[in-house]
Amino acid sequence: MSSTMWSVDEHLDDILGAVRPLEPIELQLHDAQSCVLVEDVFVQIALPPFDNSSMDGYAVRVADVGAANEEFPAVLTVIGDVAAGSDGLPGDRSVGPGEAARIMTGAPLPAGADAVVPVEWTDGGTGGGPADTMRPHRDAPEGAGGEVRVHRPVEARAHVRARGSDVKPGDLALSAGSVIGPPQIGLLAAIGRSTVKVRPRPRVVVVSTGSELAQPGEELTGGRIYDSNSFALTAAARDAGAIAYRVGAVTDDPDTLRATIEDQLIRADLVVTTGGVSVGAYDVVKEALSSVGDADEPGGVDFRKLAMQPGKPQGFGTIGPDRTPLLALPGNPVSAYVSFELFVRPAIRALMGLADLHRPTVRAALDVDEALTSPAGRRQFLRGTYDAEAGTVSPVGGSGSHLIGALARADALIVLPEDVTSAEPGADIEVVLLR
Fold it and tell me: Which end of the chain lies in a sparser environment, N or C, as judged by fewer CB atoms within 10 Å?
């Protein structure tokens, strides 16, 4: 265990210096969600791939409907239907003078036509009935015959989606470093990509320790409390972008904990433990892992004190044959969550290969009635609520590291630096935004 006091920044730098982005792999689109691209993706086909209609209506020649109005509609002969998915008019026909083709949304604009008249601007066609009968007639000549009366003029290319108006071949679709979400998956599929090269989502195993921990739903007996940390930290890991696995609370037995962690390494890119890192008689994590080796040697975990509140006791190192990073967090709920935000979340995002590792920060005026105090030489993180419109932040609850009710109401962390022992009402302070 380190005898010197570490700063928050030194501890974080030590972690990020040991964490490397995961190796890229090729994934199917449905498996790539929330992953980070490692290569630029260029467009191979135009979107749309052909001129097509944005409306149900009639493909016409602008010259034939330029003078159309309610009193004197343009009367056109319907020569056929163009359905979405078709190649155009049957028999490679084109729209000639005085003609129109019934067309469906997304269908290719037939040769000869240079605009689309929405069906609402017509009588629906004497051969096709009113507007609500606009259905594709795939078997010509069933779609042909009859007339349509057009009551309004259109300009050239009206209601036509031009080929390549979205993206063109050679365009950059997505750049390396992009996080793949639903819209990005949609774009990749639309340009014909079935796989993509990404860094996979990190697999994070969360282990809570303590013989006093019961699982939610169980009956509490004397001296026991419910295990909240493993649930909160697993959810936080998922929120950060990881695939997270929660392990039920491990009793205060070093051999059991060591065996549990070793069993989990097969599915872990990062291990997070909570509890058992202080100086008590039953600090099982420290006892189980300190004997593995020094932090500078393979498999070493170093337990240290940080100049912060809450979250003074921390542990970090690597374990197992693959030197899997392990972060040991305190057991108090607020200490564990604050430690996760400061140290684990950046490590997860570093494994993903993201450039932006940290939560956004802003400056805000401290909205309090009395000055806040902070211990000298420690960076304090208080829970708070941030009012973006007013530019203020207010503390929620006290500074106790067990106040999980206040944590649930907070959406920010109020940061009081090491050299600040008192923050007066209205003081300009740093705020970490949690949502």
Answer: C
DSSP β-ladder status, 270-274 and 225-226: unpaired
pLDDT (tens digit per residue) in 195-251: 999 999 999 999 998 888 888 888 888 889 889 999 999 999 999 999 999 998 888
Which residue in 249, 258, 267 sits closest to 205, CA to CA? Answer: 267
pTM of the complete model beyond 0.70: yes
Main-chain dihedrals φ then ψ at residue 416, nearest 5 degrees: -110, 115
Q: What are phi and psi of 96, to 5 degrees?
A: -100, -175
The rounded distance, in Å, linking the Cα atoms of 22 and 393 is 37
CA 8 vs. chain centroid, Å, equals 27
- Dist. CA 352–CA 347, nearest whole Å: 9
Kindly provide the b/e burial profile for residues 301-312, where b requires at least 16 CB atoms within 10 angstroms of the residue's own CB.
Answer: bbbbbbbbbbbb
Taking only the tens place, the pLDDT of each residue in 125-156 is 754 444 444 444 443 344 566 999 999 999 99
CA 430/CA 418 separation, integer angstroms: 13
Asked if 213 contacts 172 with a C-beta cutoff of 8 angstroms, the reply is: no
**What angle do helix axes 8-18 and 345-352 make, rounded to 10 degrees?**
30
Give me 232's structure tokens.
């909160």
